[in-house]
Known about the structure:
CATH class: Alpha Beta
Structural class: alpha/beta
Largest sheet: 9 strands, parallel
Shape: globular
Distance between the termini: 28 Å
Strand order of the largest sheet: 1-3-2-4-9-8-5-6-7
Number of domains: 1
CATH architecture: 3-Layer(aba) Sandwich
Strand content: 5-15%
Number of helices: 11
Number of strands: 9
Amino acid sequence: MSLEDAKTEIDAAFTRADLRGLxxxxxxxxxxxxxxxxxxxxxxxVDLAITGVPFDQAVTHRPGTRFGPRAIREAxxxxxxxxxxxxxxxxxxxxxxxxxxxxxxxxxxxSDFPAALSAHIAxxxxxxxxxxxLGGDHYITLPILRAYADRFxxxxxxxxxxxxxxxxxxxxxxxxxxxMMYKAVKAGYVDPRRSVQIGIRTExxxxxxxxxIDARAVHEEGAAAASARARAIVGAAPCYLTFDIDALDPxxxxxTGTPVWGGLxxxxxxxxxxGLAGIDLAGGDVVEVSPPYDTTGxxxxxxxHVAHELICLYGWTRRRGG
Length: 322
């Protein structure tokens, strides 16, 4: 949508005809789809589908991430006016991106949720699009990885997090955001030898083969070293990137259920993400944004920026024929 169109068009989330292009609708008005993309269930020609999963029944501490997708979409209204700084290309103009809306589920039938989410993601992947999911608590990554593994085989994973989420729990029916990566490894959805966790600053007895770049290593060795090491670990394999917003220090992202001090600064996260350019990103998510614990909206802004960077990463390889 051009600047001239913006003078007469409103609610681009419903009215825009082209899945590509920047958007110039007032940031303070209109329906807040993610980056003002069109809301649609039609995936024909879509490169990347944005979908929300407002689920927070798996938390160990504070709920509220069910409001995360809505808050991230609203925060993203500030971003679709220009290409993101530092990438050298305009992903919104090169990629066909749609907002697929939120997944519908019965909040009172929690046991049905995992299979429903896997099917939701599988539908998008079957149409030939990648997914960028706005959470929701971190449990949602487990059913998503199941759908990705069914399509691509065991995935390489880059996980930004304060916690490893590798707590031992062999009850595969139990729904808990602190055990989801343990279960993903045990179920064969993830190849830990080609996977890395970044920003960790809580104890873990067994990383099950994951490489770890903890928060201290990022602070002492720098963002460039972290991204270079992560790229080397995942190599050319199809990769899934999951970003728990508590990877950031609470000074930058207080609105989350299990905040831990000593985390990444926003500039460190941005530099690491941009340093990952060249990985074969098949999909990703941003999770654990809990707006009730941040009256400033800063955490949702962080989430929106991370999601925009994941779009940049998704498009980087594809624009070079990868």
